[in-house]
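SAMPLE LOG
Freezer: B-3
Tube label: C17
Construct: single chain, 176 aa
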Amino acid sequence: MPTGPAMGWYSPLHRGVLPLGDLRVTRSMRKSAKRYEIRVDSAFEEVLLACGEPRRPGGWITAAIRRVYTQLHQVGVAHSVEAWTDDTLAGGLYGVSIGGLFAGESMFHRDDIGRDASKVALIALVDRLHSDGIDRLLDVQWRTPHLASLGVIEISRTAYLARLETALQLPGPDWA
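STRUCTURE (predicted):
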């Protein structure tokens, strides 16, 4: 039985997805990526806090949402991909991984040390999701102009739900 207010789940008419083989990485981004060390799940709560920074526009990550995602992380369902420079977290992303689905929830970068850090984390996520050649589903929620420049496309709810059904039957990536 639920305790507390219900959380909504949205199923929009169109969904942003990143086909793993279609990630666009510029030469300058590849060069920039060399400045970062990629880590996975080493600072999940720090990534969650940075993504939920109250000064960020459109902030939606409340204390209740942080608690839920922290619990999901503790049971191995939510993961973070982090870009570090000089042992400082410069940027990263987090999301939920179920079977062959990774639902990206939010990403961030620190302007002073990691302008490209969130994009580098996304590149590392795609590499992890696709390293064994399995065509998993990377759900990024919305196709923004920024994400479109990286290869994100928009698909209909019907197409998304069909891809989701297939993805949930696939094995997940190795998060270790």
